[in-house]
Amino acid sequence: MRNEIKAAIVTAVLILSIAVLFTSVLRVPQNVVPLFLVPAFLYAGYAIAPAGFKTWLILTVFVSIALAVLYAVP
User: What digits encode the pLDDT tens for the residues 31-69?
Assistant: First the structure.
């Protein structure tokens, strides 16, 4: 499987998991920043200037989890 396809799959999974986490599990509104857009923006960065798939993957997962935790804590 090509890295571009893997990146698209990871982005889709992160977007869905963030949306489900906030709406169903935490029941916290995403009122500050739509967190589900963060992986999409990072995917756009990967598509424009690839620095390597593993680097992108680590950065995307870390930023998504960090922002989710930041906004989930009251």
Answer: 655 666 777 777 777 777 667 777 778 877 888 888 778
Tokens encoding 29 = 């509104």
| Pair of tokens at residue 6 | 């893997």
Total number of residues shown for the chain: 74
Report how far residue 33's alpha carbon sits from residue 52's, in angstroms, rounded to the nearest whole number.
27
Per DSSP, the residues of 2-61 read -HHHHHHHHHHHHHHHHHHIIIIIS-----SS-GGGHHHHHHHHHHHS---HHHHHHHHH
Please check whether residue 35 is in contact with residue 18, taking contact to mean a CB–CB distance below 8 angstroms. Answer: yes
Which pTM value belongs to this model? 0.67
